[in-house]
């Protein structure tokens, strides 16, 4: 049981992963609502806080001078008492290949409600498994988040990969008075596909070319005339730590939707397969006819809950991550969500947001 005035959140609900914790902590910070999260990551084979989650919580707590208890690696329960969000310059380091983008996912919404612009210097992995690659955050999340009024700049100083980490990203966030609801319900037609296939460290550029060619071959099937431009590159030595490889592909539509497919290389997995996996993910996301891909879906829920007015987003099949993000938003805000099922492959998520106001600007 949580103390009086503290909302208890079951971290093992639905997806039962780190996202519950990030969304709950961000909303707690934004609303000034103390929380206890128990059963942390109970849905994972290694439950409890991992360095990425712990660093994310500490970062949010720093931004608002909050009080955190229970934050050590492996902990399955934390309590967070937030304070007022303060602009400034902050650093956070997962000290592992823990995803920098997931630190951003936790912290950036909070900084929209700071008194001035804020700089974050974040260290960890830039292209990590089970998380957005930094290229996804910049090429897909950022332009769509801008439609809600979320403004930030993001500069990749150094890339870092599993297992070494060591990447660095600097962001500058700009405060808003409030976010605006967004309608993304017209997919339009795919006008072009662009992408980036990279290698870093000891890997030869040939691997990047192979990934790009294999992705393009698959994307051309049934799309002969489509403009496809996938850059193949080797990261300059000074701008990457360790060895890594991967690919991100983005389809742009006539109505401004952005859908992605991505994959990271692993020892023993041929480059052809990495390229084809990313292409197949993109093809699947183009097939369902939604305006967002399977990952952007859950990443927009927090913004929809905070925005003023009714947002509507046409999606493919609703993911468990999205269900979980909605569940947490409902526990902590008065946002009203509604789901309209158009078919097994097609749904509209509707949200009447709370129109949170930044009283500091
Ligand atoms: N390939 C991808 N492209 C873009 N975003 C991704 C991709 N894979 C995962 N994500 C996003 O990363 C987040 C992962 O959340 P999740 O709770 O699974 O991870 P986590 O914090 O690392 O915790 P855990 O280790 O418990 O899984 C989600 O917002 C999801 O949309």
UniProtKB/TrEMBL annotation:
InterPro entries: RNA3'-term_phos_cycl_insert, RNA3'_phos_cyclase_dom, RNA3'_phos_cyclase_dom_sf, RNA3'_term_phos_cyc, RNA3'_term_phos_cyc_type_1, RNA3'_term_phos_cycl-like_CS, RNA3'P_cycl/enolpyr_Trfase_a/b, RPTC_insert. The active site is at 321 (tele-amp-histidine intermediate). PROSITE patterns: RTC (PS01287). CDD domains: RNA_Cyclase_Class_II. Keywords: ATP-binding, Ligase, Nucleotide-binding. Residues 14-338 form the RNA 3'-terminal phosphate cyclase domain. PANTHER family: RNA 3' TERMINAL PHOSPHATE CYCLASE, RNA 3'-TERMINAL PHOSPHATE CYCLASE. This is RNA 3'-terminal phosphate cyclase.
């Amino acid at each position: 049981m949580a103390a009086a005035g503290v909302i208890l959140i079951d971290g093992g609900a639905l997806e039962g992963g780190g996202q519950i914790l990030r969304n709950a902590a961000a909303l707690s910070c934004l609303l000034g609502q103390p929380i206890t999260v128990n059963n942390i990551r109970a849905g994972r084979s290694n439950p409890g806080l991992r360095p990425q989650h712990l660093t994310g919580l500490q970062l949010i707590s720093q931004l608002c001078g909050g009080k955190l208890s229970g934050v050590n690696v492996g902990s399955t329960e934390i309590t967070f008492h937030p304070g007022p969000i303060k602009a400034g310059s902050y650093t956070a380091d997962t000290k592992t290949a823990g995803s920098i983008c997931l630190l951003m996912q936790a912290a950036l919404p909070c900084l929209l409600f700071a008194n001035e612009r804020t700089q974050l210097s974040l260290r960890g992995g830039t292209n990590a498994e089970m998380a957005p690659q930094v290229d996804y955050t910049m090429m897909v999340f950022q332009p769509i988040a801008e439609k809600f009024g979320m403004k930030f700049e993001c500069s990749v100083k150094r890339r870092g990969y599993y297992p070494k980490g060591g990447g660095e990203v600097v962001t500058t966030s700009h405060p808003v008075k409030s976010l605006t609801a967004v309608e993304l319900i017209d997919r339009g037609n795919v006008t072009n596909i662009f992408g980036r296939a990279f290698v870093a460290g000891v890997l030869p550029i040939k691997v990047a070319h192979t990934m790009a060619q294999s992705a393009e071959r698959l994307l051309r099937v049934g799309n002969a005339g489509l403009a496809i431009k996938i850059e193949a590159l080797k990261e300059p030595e000074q701008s990457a730590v360790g060895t890594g490889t991967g690919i991100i592909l983005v389809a742009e539509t006539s109505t401004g939707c952005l859908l992605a497919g991505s994959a990271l290389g692993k020892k023993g997995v041929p480059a052809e397969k990495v390229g084809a996996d990313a292409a197949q993910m993109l093809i699947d996301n183009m097939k369902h006819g939604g305006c967002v891909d399977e990952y952007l879906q859950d990443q927009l829920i927090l913004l929809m809950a905070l925005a003023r007015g009714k947002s509507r987003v046409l999606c493919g099949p609703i993911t468990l991550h999205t269900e979980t993000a909605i569940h947490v938003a409902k526990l902590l805000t008065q946002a009203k969500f509604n789901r309209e099922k158009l078919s097994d492959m097609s749904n509209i998520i509707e949200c009447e947001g709370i129109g949170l106001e930044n009283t500091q600007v």
